[in-house]
Amino acid sequence: MTDRSTSPPYATAQATITTSTMVRYSAAAFLAAICMLSSNSSFGNVGLARAADMTEAEKAAETAAANAAAEEMIEAISTPYSPPEGSSAFEYEAEVHKMLDIVINSLYTNKDIFLRELISNASDALDKIRFLSVTKPELLGDTPNLEVKIEYDPDAKTITIRDTGLGMTKNDLIENLGTVARSGTTNFMKALKESETNDISQIGMFGVGFYSTFLIADRVSVASKHNDDETQHVWESLNGESSFHVGPDPRGNTLGRGTEITLHLKEDAEEYLSPYKLKEMIGHYSEFVTHPVSLRQIKTIQVPKETDEFDEEEEEKKEDGDDIEVSEEDEQEEKEPEMEEVTTYEYEQINTDPAIWARDKDGITDEEYQEFWKVVSKGDSAGDAEDWTHFNAEGNINFKSILYVPSEVPFALQQGNMEMMKPGLRLYVRKVLISDEFDLMPRYLNFIKGVVDSDDLPLNVNRETLQESKIVKIIKKKLVRKALDLIRKMSQQEMPDDDETDEAEVDADGNVIVKDDADKKPKVHPYITWYKKFGLSLKMGCIDDSANKDKLQKLLRFKSSKADGEDEFISLQEYVDRMKDWQKEIYVFPGESIKQLKESSFMDAFNDRDVEVLYLTDSIDEYFIGNVREFNGVKFRDITKEGVKFSDEDEDLAKRRNKVYTEKFSPLTKYLKKLYGSDVSRVAISKRLGRAPAIVSSSEWGQSANMDRIMRAQAFAHGVAPGENMMPTGILELNPRHPFVIKLLESIPDDGETDPPQSVKDNAWILLDTATMSGGFPIRDPKKFAARMTRVLKSGLDVESLTLADEIDPPAEEDLPDEPEFEMPDGLNMEDLNLDDLDINM
């Protein structure tokens, strides 16, 4: 710390501040001192607006107050720091400035972490004494309760964390609280640089967690008592000092056993003196710590003031010797007792929720699991948990976990806003919360809630570094596998039995009405009910998570052309199992609704052959099919695209037919391609149309009509002007057996040069229009379409001209008389109503 004696206020005070000076003073005193010290300087020329209005007495009182405040500040500044009486100084081997730079800039980005670190250390100390007391109960002595107590003192500006754990001897204080320094900051940085795998477990080996206290404190005192040491010792150090002091505690043995850490807060850290802030922090980081963590609450209440015994005796004597009669009114007038303020202290346990993941799962009831679900979900998901898994992962990395699958979709997921979805898993180290913001699950499983508790993770490390660690990546991989196994078991559950609790219907004669099976609602598998809410997330997983793509595909369910019920879905494996013998592909049909897909012309050939088609009505289905492409070696085939073939026919016969049809309709296909121009990419003879005259399909690697609809609906699409034509160019497939196509072939000139009549052109365009709409595409040019339809209507209705008829001129009508006003009948007069005449007896 630099010498500030050259500054004007400090020059007046003649206070030289050294590195051993404790700089703590009141901000109010500092301001008052500045006012006083600058009264004879240039600031005095400015003056205060209200000074002229003050009386001499007021001025004198204000000057005296300023002088007193300035003297208080000067005394605080000039008073050097005094270490605990009888303590010895120990020099740090490494520079504390470097160590604090690591703590503040490299490890901790959140000052709140200090409380997590201290409670974790206290919990470890309590676990140690509990373990030792199993074989030596006498170690607990007069302090059998294992607990952590936290106190705050607004007047002294201190926070105290006290535990009844193992405690530390004098040597322990020197060794344990000097680990960072003697291990060497340089060695610490060197270890991180030399770690090829970025193994952040190095950080835990240097014990920097305790030093997070200097994020908010300028002086830290640690008192501790160990059973092996008869004396209670105290460790103390200033923020930024190169040494610390250890010696006997001047207060004596106040702890019995355990450790007490007192933080003397910086002026910018006084927010931590708020009981609400501390309670929130304790609940956040230590909600499931095994041992009780209590916060001392300070309350001020009004109580009757106690009366001296002497006054009470004198009053009794006076009453005994007084023969004056007291009236009843005087007796009723009781004197209100005099009240006084009393400050009370009461400890409130904060961590009341049980950490059930640490218990044996065979001893936990479903009700307890559901209660814990309410704790981890925090109201983010309505309803109960659909299912859960409780497991211990053992191997290179050991951890315990409970994963929950919700029954209802979280609100953010309902809106499709993935950025608003908060991570659902909390990461703990020995029941101390590390973070609830880790991405321990991929985004497609962000609806999974639960906890993960590992003893193999370093506690004192920031979230960003831990997120990239090898340990967390291994944990994440195991968690994903467990979550998918849980969903798989849900899908394989047996259909639940009929609900026998339904009340039977009885007829007028008292006979039970037996319902026909047709009247009963079909049972729905619980997994189908759940899948209808969360199926989109699983499809997203097939796109994002290629490693688990095969597992995820087995969890998917689809509507199909043979599944008519609202809740009737099939899996991909079920589809493959009932494919036709000649079928080599999984036929899928993407579209906007089931009704439109069923009525589409694309389905004619499949219905005729009794071939099942999967209906894809989710917007994500197009991306899913484009990325996955196959299931268990069987490829997906979009029936709206070219290349659909059926192997149930004689291949040689099909080729010969196609050759004949192609040659026969060659004049028509050439003419239509010339007529349509760039509106179609190709005109071809279809091999799959049933009853439709024509249809527009997409190229095998092009964009389907459904995908085109999705792309044009993007609200944030850039680079496209409003109304710009974005439609892809499709393939016009003609049905060579349809009368419309045959008639159109006969209507065009044989020479190919003569221009056909306008009616033939209109018919050709209308054929394209109907095929375009049947293929799922919108009309390319609505204005031209309307003109063509007008000409068709004109011809069909035999209208010669479209000139409008003359406007009619109807004769004037005679004025009708006004309607008579409706007169209300005279109402009842309440004065004429005699209530006594009314018979109101029931």
Mean pLDDT: 78
Output the structural class: alpha+beta
Strand content: 15-25%
Number of strands: 22
Helix content: 25-40%
Oligomer: single chain
Number of helices: 28
Provide the low-confidence segments as ranges: 1-51, 181-189, 196-207
- Physical arrangement of strands within the biggest beta sheet: 1-6-5-4-7-3-2-8-9
Radius of gyration: 43 Å
Which word captures the global form? Answer: elongated
User: End-to-end distance, in Å?
Assistant: 96 Å
Query: Biggest sheet: strands, sense, closure?
Result: 9 strands, mixed
Q: How would you sum up this structure, described in words?
A:
With 842 residues, this protein is an alpha+beta fold. 35% of the residues lie in helices and 16% in strands. It contains 28 helices and 22 strands. The strands form four sheets. The protein has a nine-stranded mixed sheet with strand order 1-6-5-4-7-3-2-8-9, with helices on one face. It has a five-stranded mixed sheet with strand order 10-11-14-12-13, sandwiched between helices. Strands 15-17-16-19-18 form a five-stranded mixed sheet. A hairpin with a 4-residue loop joins strand 2 (148-153) and strand 3. Helix 27 (758-774) crosses helix 28. The longest helix is centred in the N-terminal third of the chain and has 23 residues, at 56-78. The radius of gyration is 43 Å and the shape is elongated. It starts with 7 loop residues before the first helix and ends in a 46-residue tail after the last helix. Residues 1-51, 181-189 and 196-207 have low confidence and may be disordered.
